[in-house]
Design goal:
InterPro entries: Cro/C1-type_HTH, Lambda_DNA-bd_dom_sf
GO molecular function, one term: DNA binding
Number of domains: 1
Keywords: DNA-binding
Strand order of the largest sheet: 1-2
Largest sheet: 2 strands, antiparallel
CATH architecture: Orthogonal Bundle
Structural class: mainly alpha
Distance between the termini: 11 Å
Strand content: 5-15%
Protein name: DNA-binding protein
Number of helices: 5
Mean pLDDT: 96
Length: 65
């Protein structure tokens, strides 16, 4: 799954650690999501969308095969 998490985080000048703290997850989790190595759970995806004031679809998109 592709995502805009790094882009959105940079727009707010947040570190990966700060976003992790806001979401209650580790910095490593943020890194893994940004690099596409880990897809967040649905509750975490909703939480991420809420933090940025966007919908899940605005942040996450399926990769075309």
């Amino acid at each position: 799954m592709k995502n805009r998490l790094a882009e959105l985080r940079h727009e707010r000048q947040w570190s990966q650690e700060k976003l992790g703290t806001i979401l209650g997850v580790s910095r490593q989790t943020i890194i893994s999501i940004e690099k596409g190595r880990f897809d967040p759970s649905l509750p975490l995806a909703f939480q991420i969308a809420n933090v940025f004031g966007l919908t899940i679809e605005d942040i996450f998109t399926p990769e075309e095969k």
